[in-house]
Amino acid sequence: MIKRLLVANRGEIAVRIIRSCREMGIETVAVYSTADSGSLHVRLADQAVCIGPPPSAKSYLSAENLIMAALHTGCEALHPGAGFLSENAAFARLCGSGGLVFIGPSPENLELLGNKVQARATARKYGLPVTPGTDAVETENPRRTAENAEKLGFPVIIKAAAGGGGKGMRIVKNAGELEENIAIARCEAEAHFADGTVFIEKYLENPRHVELQILSDGSGNVAVLGERDCTVQKNHQKLIEESPAPAVDPSMRKAMAAGAVPLFRELKYRGAGTIEFLVEDGSFYFMEVNARVQVEHPVSEFVSGVDIIREQILACTEGRMSIAPRDGTENSGWAIECRINALAPGRVNRLEIPGGPGVRFDSSLYPGCTVSPHYDSMVGKLIVHDTNREKALARMNRALGELVIDGIAVNTNRQRWIINHPIFRSGSFGTSYYSEIEKEVESVL
Ligand code: ADP
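A: This is the predicted complex of the input protein with adenosine-5'-diphosphate.
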């Protein structure tokens, strides 16, 4: 077992990683920008190193500063968390050349899966149904592009091959708007990802977002920890996640796992990954792979009983996992996560954290802490588990009611409003659900 690991992230995910490491007997080194010197992850780690000023580009995204911090403190491995450099193949490669174990897949797999056009081709190769769409759009052939879009049928969605976080996506309703939107999408993609490659998918009007949690040991042993439904989204950003997915029946669950396992097996994938699908009219379509641990991983931890961070570390540092291959049908109960987002930065004066059976609050908040304007607005995740959806929702209601965060405005009451809405209760809705209720939700204080 390794002795020391650098946590190359901040906020709740850094705290989450530190917790598993401590249980495994691994010492942790936290990193922080000057805006985060008082953060919980800094307090909880065995050691902490300042890696730069508040802008992420000069701190959490500085490969050089992170690797220097790891080497100077005698770390053997680096956990990138989620976001920042977690899916950056060049960074993973640099870690390797510096003698550090990158807790994530190989640079080659990151390269392949980080490009959505290549990932789609790979999924197709292993027989997975893929969302109807094109390969990379050729700049020099607008006529072919127009024909391809016409063939798919409008509306279509233009996506950045290197995209993520909902950036660089544009929905196009008719042929007349295609060329201009492709040009805009290219510029956005170039600005955000330094790669202007875009492709086109058929835009499904109101699908569900369903994803499988995968763990793999790097030698072809693949464990599927079941699916999550992440259909409640605002501007393509997830707000509420649950497992199992209300729209997935046992035969679809089996088919999804049967389709996903060969892909991860053949890639000799290492660590945690998520394969995302759109589900419509009883069919599922591959969308992309996120080659890292995800924000919503705790719902899968609750239903599977597996510590995903621990398995990730074991897979990457020792080439083994403590669990046997499984297909997700072993899961039990129902778990739901509500993301707790700050509506504005500020100081937290009072904090009361919910507890009791089946309740988990992953957060970086503590009384007196400051929520910085420099980073993500998500300050916590409230996750509950019970035997079925109805009971889990009752538990979530209870836990949201116990959560008190004074000093900053948060979305707790809005989340409560959403989970009690008859449409959410019915379990039957698509990704446009949030936009339909947005006005009402956002009037809730
Ligand atoms: P990102 O990598 O930027 O998060 P994704 O490809 O994962 O982008 O898509 C994010 C969300 O955008 C999906 O969950 C879904 O709500 C919507 N979306 C993406 N592709 C399509 C599509 N072809 N049809 C309808 N909605 C889509």
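The chain has a mean pLDDT of 97. The domain at 208-444 is CATH 3.30.470.20 (D-amino Acid Aminotransferase; Chain A, domain 1).
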